[in-house]
Amino acid sequence: GKRQASRAFSLYANIDILRPYFDVEPVQVRARLLESMIPVKMINFPQKIAGELYGPLMLVFTLVAILLHGMKTSDTIIREGTLMGTAIGTCFGYWLGVSSFIYFLAYLCNAQITMVQMLSLLGYGLFGHCITLFVTYNIHFHSLFYIFWLGVGGLSTLRMVAVLVSRTVGHTQRLILCGTLAALHMLFLLYLHFAYHKVVEGILDTLEGPNMPPFQRVARDIPVVSNAVLNTTAKAVALTL
């Protein structure tokens, strides 16, 4: 009983440590979602970063659902694993992996940011990806995707870049840190769009491409007529003439 009580107490203590990172009101999450699309040009003072993980975690799960929808509509075949596992691994792998890499790079560049703040910043930065993929997965036009990619995805990327610029000292350090984050974030959106749309993209290229294959005529089934019938028909025509 003492061991079970100590285990329960330790588990409750661990959960209590994580509670401040998920204690947030829906109004605050909505405001931070809107702020993630508005880049603020303020370099002299470090911009504030929300130190909570509820909003970013929900955005990652939303991205998983959108990516799973895109994989199903494009008839993507996964040889090893399942569609759900691939979608979860891709989204969470990017969120955790890129956040860790950028945090390590920020440590080398003397940027004032913690790991929780980096997870929150990159997590809210996925809001633009969710909007872009949700629209372009249902409306398949190349031009529309590039507009959303530069517009919506670019705004969310500029927001993160502006925050890192305000927390980094030195032009070289800012260029390395912000350039790496912007390249990874924008290329990840390109990957999510084109990696699971092979069937749809092939259809669009066939319909929109300049070199359309020629129309092929299919021979219809003609009943086989015996030689006797043909000879009889020929003799009747000859006698008539």
TrEMBL record:
Keywords annotated in UniProt: Cell membrane, Cytoplasm, Differentiation, Glycoprotein, Golgi apparatus, Membrane, Transmembrane, Transmembrane helix
Keyword Cell membrane assigned: yes
Keyword Metal-binding: no
Chain segments annotated as transmembrane: 53-71, 83-109, 121-140, 146-166, 175-196
One Gene Ontology term from the biological process aspect of the record: cell differentiation
Localization of this protein: Cell membrane; Cytoplasm; Golgi apparatus, cis-Golgi network membrane
Cellular component annotations (GO), alphabetically ordered: Golgi apparatus; plasma membrane
Membrane topology category: Multi-pass membrane protein
Highest taxon in the source lineage: Eukaryota
Protein family (similarity comment): Belongs to the YIP1 family.
Function text: Involved in the maintenance of the Golgi structure. May play a role in hematopoiesis.
The protein's name: Protein YIPF3
Native source organism of the sequence: Phoenicopterus ruber ruber
